[in-house]
UniProtKB/TrEMBL annotation, chains A, B:
Signal peptide: none
Pathway it works in: Amino-acid biosynthesis; L-methionine biosynthesis via de novo pathway; L-homoserine from L-aspartate: step 2/3; Amino-acid biosynthesis; L-threonine biosynthesis; L-threonine from L-aspartate: step 2/5; Amino-acid biosynthesis; L-lysine biosynthesis via DAP pathway; (S)-tetrahydrodipicolinate from L-aspartate: step 2/4
All residue ranges annotated as the Semialdehyde dehydrogenase NAD-binding domain in the record: 11-126
EC number: 1.2.1.11
GO molecular function, one term: protein dimerization activity
Residues reported in the UniProt entry to bind NADP(+): 18-21, 46-47, 165-166, 189, 321
UniProt KW keywords: Amino-acid biosynthesis, Diaminopimelate biosynthesis, Lysine biosynthesis, Methionine biosynthesis, NADP, Oxidoreductase, Threonine biosynthesis
GO biological process: 'de novo' L-methionine biosynthetic process; diaminopimelate biosynthetic process; isoleucine biosynthetic process; lysine biosynthetic process via diaminopimelate; threonine biosynthetic process
Gene name in the database record: asd
Residues noted as binding substrate in the record, renumbered to the chain: 162, 241
Name listed for the protein in its UniProt record: Aspartate-semialdehyde dehydrogenase
Lineage, top ranks: Bacteria, Bacillati, Cyanobacteriota, Cyanophyceae, Oscillatoriophycideae
Organism name: Euhalothece natronophila Z-M001
Amino acid sequence: MEVNHLSEGIRVAILGATGAVGTELIQLLEERAFPVSQLKLLASPRSAGKTISFRGEALTIEAVSAEAFQDVDLVLASAGGSTSKAWAQTIVDAGAVLVDNSSAFRMDETVPLIVPEINPQAAAQHQGIIANPNCTTILMGLAIFPLHQIQPIQRLIVATYQSASGAGAQAMAEVKAQARAILNEETPPTDAFPYPLAFNVFPHNSPLTEQGYCQEEMKMVKETRKIFDAPELRISATCIRVPVLRAHSEAINLEFAEPFPVGKAKEVLSQAPGVEVREDWENNYFPMPNEATGKDEVFVGRIRQDISHPCGLELWLSGDQIRKGAALNAVQIAELLVKDQLLPTTEKAVSV
Amino acid sequence: MEVNHLSEGIRVAILGATGAVGTELIQLLEERAFPVSQLKLLASPRSAGKTISFRGEALTIEAVSAEAFQDVDLVLASAGGSTSKAWAQTIVDAGAVLVDNSSAFRMDETVPLIVPEINPQAAAQHQGIIANPNCTTILMGLAIFPLHQIQPIQRLIVATYQSASGAGAQAMAEVKAQARAILNEETPPTDAFPYPLAFNVFPHNSPLTEQGYCQEEMKMVKETRKIFDAPELRISATCIRVPVLRAHSEAINLEFAEPFPVGKAKEVLSQAPGVEVREDWENNYFPMPNEATGKDEVFVGRIRQDISHPCGLELWLSGDQIRKGAALNAVQIAELLVKDQLLPTTEKAVSV
C-alpha cells in the first residue's frame, strides 16, 4: 500500500489487544504491512505489563486511559460494547478515528457500517467512528451482495453454524476443555457458555427480543439492510452455535423476483472480491469451517436452484470468524481510510 | 399392550442386530414390553456366535440365511439397503412382515412409509413390507404435521444439524476418536467419514443428485410428501453433519397460505403426540441434542413468527436419531401391526 500523503505512517492503538480478535488484529497489521508508525496495545489493567510481539519487537500492553489515546490516529477496538461506549468520545475528541468491532454503534445513523467489498463509499461519511459489522453478517454479505447487485434479493432465510470464537478466546478454550471432559466421562465446564457446546449445538445465547429472535439474529437482519442500503430487505435468521473453533458456516436461501440461473450465480461469485467458490460435486467436497480457518476468503459452495421456488437459490458458506468475520474486515476498513485519506491526520496532510 | 388375538406372542427377527439401530431395537422391544414370544438376532457371519442380552437372557447372534426367516412373524431390519433388498422377498415369502429401516423400499408405491403419529392408517395397505422413514424426515414430520393439519404448509425450508449416529455406530466412535486426536494435535482418523467431523461441520456426504441436492436432502423432500400424502408440498433442505453423537437438530421455516398465530402453533404442538415443546425464553433455554439423547420425544422450541413473511413460522427441534429417528419408530410400527392385527399370523388368528 502506498502512503504517499503521510510518509511517517499511522499511529495505531488496539483496544482489547489480548482478546481473540485483538491478537489477530496485531498479526494482520504486520502481515498486510499496514503503514504503522507507532502501535499502542491497550487492554484492561489485568493485562497491563504483558508483552506481545509486533514486527519482531516486544510491545508492552498498557492499561486503557484517556491519555493513551493522545497522539493516536486510528483506534481498532475489540473489547466489547461497554468498553467502546466508554471510550468512543474520548477517542474522537483526541482526534483519532475509531474502527469499532463491537455492536455499540453499528445501528447509529451517524456511524458508517462497512464491509469494504460492499459499501466502501460509506466510509467518507464518518464522523470519527466506523463500525465493523457482526461476523455472521460480514460473511453472508460477501457471498450474497454480488448476486444482489445483479438482481435485488427479495427475501433471505439463513441458518448459521457458529463457532466458539464468536464468544471469545475463553470460549474457544472452553469448548476444547468440554470435549476433553466428555471424552473422559467427566462433567464439562460451562463458564463461558451456558451449556456444553462440545458434542452439542444450541441456539445462540444472545438476549432474546420480543419478536422471538435473539440479538445475534437481529444483527444479521438489521446490519445487512444497512450495509446493502436495502432497508426493506426481508430476512429471517436462525443462529446456532456448533462445536467448531473459529470459522462460521451458513445455509442461505435466497429468493429473487425472477429466476437467477445457477450458472450465472457461480460466474458472479467466482469473480467476487473476497469470495472463493469451492465446489467439487464429483467428490462431494464443499466449504468446511476447518479449511476456512486462518483464510481471508469466504468459501461458497453447493450453489443450487431452490427446488421449492422458481426464483430461489440455495448456497452454503464457511468463513473464518476471527479473520474476515472481525479482525481482517477492521484492518481492511483501516486500509480504506488510509487510501481514501479519511484519517484526521491525512485530512490535515491533504489540507496543507 | 394387549395381544388377546395371539396369546403366544410375536416371533420377531432383527436383521442387523449389532448395529447402532439394531442394538436400540432390542432394548426397545424389552423396555416397551413388546409381546415377543421368540427373538432371533441376525447379522453378518462376522458377528455370528456373539451374544446379546434380552430380558436377562443371552441370545446368540445367527448369520443371516433364508432358513432363519422360517417361523418368524415380524422382521425388523436395519442392515442397510442392499441387505434389505437381498432378503425382502425371502422374508415375505416366508410369511413374515418386514419393517425396513433402510431407504430401499421407501418410495415404492406398494410399500407404506409410516410415522405412526402421522399416517398409521397407511399400514393397512401393506403387502408384506413397511418402510421406516429417514431419521431427519421422521423428526421433522412429528413437529410440523400437527400444524399442517390445521393449515396446509405451502413451502418448507429446512437446515439440519445431523449427528454422527446417522452414519452408524462406527461413525459415532470415529467422531470421538477424531476429537481426541485433534485435542492431542494429531491427525484425526477418517475411515467412516470422508472428512474430520470433530470440531468441524460438512454437507451430508450422501451422493449428489443432478439438481444439486444430496440424497439425504431429497429423502426429506420425497418422504415427507409421501407420509403427509401431500405430493405437491414444496420443500428445500440443506443437510449438514455436525459433531454431535446421536441426536439431530433442525431449523425449519414454514410458509402457510394465511398467517399462523404463534400462540396457536404452541398450543397445537404442546398437545401433539411424540412432541414436547421446550421453551424457556427467559433463560434462553431451548431444545439441544445432548438433552434429546435417549429420549422418545422430539423437542420443539423457538417457535416464532417469521419476520420475513406474514404467513411464515420459524421453529427449532432436536430429537434422538437412533430412537425416534429409527428404532423407536420401527417398534411403534410393529406395535401398530399388532394392535390393528396386520401381521399374517394375526390375520390367520382372526380368520379362524
